[in-house]
């Protein structure tokens, strides 16, 4: 029986690059995301290398998630790896200028969505001899920065949820990792900047940011670790990125 990976957000960025890499290694793929036409095209391409099942999925909808998992085709029922990758940041305004609707969307996607998918797949994962959950957190889980408010807090949830899952799953064969990337070039910032290409270029131009393939390599490496190893968390930045000074605001006497 071959390994089977369930990827959320497989239409772009890390999820897309991971789908391609797992396909090269002969994994069965369950590819999900909202943009079904992209999934169909990807399934067509990767179907030459491995078995692919794809389905439109909005992770925010717990019923849709549960139905999709319940209706997995026979060949795809034994999921051995879950890549909880779907997520987004919206806006860079400071907290007092941020949109409440954007805050809700980030919480609904990054927190509720990730919880929905995890809950639906745990009964399957715990039946496997060895399985993996890789949760896409962020350096924003660990470090504050201006404009990160709800995005960073939602990713801090992902990091802590990952550790707490480990406590309950220890001994079950299910490993859990919180993967915490820094600046990575994908549609992520285009989404965050509301489609503003100029801002996107300003951020990524000459930045030597991580590429989706770099993250896919790490995800694959995590999943392929021997059964007795659990990488609890892994924070990764491009070598061009580091922390900066603490901010001290001077006040007039
Ligand atoms: N890029 C970075 O710098 C960076 C750094 C640290 C962590 N991360 C995290 O890594 C993950 C992947 O990011 P990325 O850089 O690959 O971004 P991306 O290229 O924008 O990909 C995000 C993926 O999430 C999916 N998605 C968004 N909302 C969804 C929803 N409601 N239901 C289902 N799928 C949804 C999108 O698919 P559809 O739109 O087709 O649904 C897309 O496939 C995210 O969780 C992000 O927070 C990114």
From TrEMBL:
Residues 3-186 form the Ketoreductase domain. GO terms for molecular function: oxidoreductase activity, acting on the CH-OH group of donors, NAD or NADP as acceptor. Keywords: Oxidoreductase. InterPro entries: KR_dom (IPR057326), NAD(P)-bd_dom_sf (IPR036291), Sc_DH/Rdtase_CS (IPR020904), SDR_fam (IPR002347). It comes from the Bacteria. Belongs to the short-chain dehydrogenases/reductases (SDR) family. This is Oxidoreductase. It comes from Agarivorans albus MKT 106.
């Amino acid at each position: 029986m071959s390994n089977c990976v369930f990827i959320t957000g497989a239409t772009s960025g890390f999820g897309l690059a991971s789908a391609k890499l797992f396909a090269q290694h002969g994994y069965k793929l369950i590819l999900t995301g909202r943009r079904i036409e992209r999934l169909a095209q990807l399934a067509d391409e990767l179907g030459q290398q491995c078995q692919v099942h794809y389905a439109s999925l909005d992770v925010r909808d717990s019923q849709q998630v549960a139905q999709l998992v319940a209706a997995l085709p026979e060949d795809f029922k034994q999921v051995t790896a879950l890549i909880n990758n779907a997520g987004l940041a919206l806006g860079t305004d400071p907290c007092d200028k941020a949109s409440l609707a954007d805050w809700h969307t980030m919480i609904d996607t990054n927190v509720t969505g990730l919880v929905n998918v995890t809950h639906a797949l745990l009964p399957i994962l715990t039946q496997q001899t060895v399985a993996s959950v890789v949760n896409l957190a962020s350096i924003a889980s660990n470090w504050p920065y201006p404009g990160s408010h709800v995005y960073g807090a939602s990713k801090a949830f992902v990091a802590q949820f990952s550790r707490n899952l480990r406590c309950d799953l220890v001994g079950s064969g299910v490993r859990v990792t919180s993967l915490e990337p820094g600046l990575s070039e994908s549609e992520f910032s285009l989404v965050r900047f509301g489609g503003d290409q100029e801002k996107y270029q300003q951020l990524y131009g000459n930045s030597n940011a991580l590429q989706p393939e770099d993250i896919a390599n790490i995800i694959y490496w995590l999943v392929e670790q021997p059964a007795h190893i659990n990488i609890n968390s892994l924070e990764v930045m491009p070598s061009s990125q580091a922390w900066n000074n603490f901010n001290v605001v001077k006040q007039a006497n």
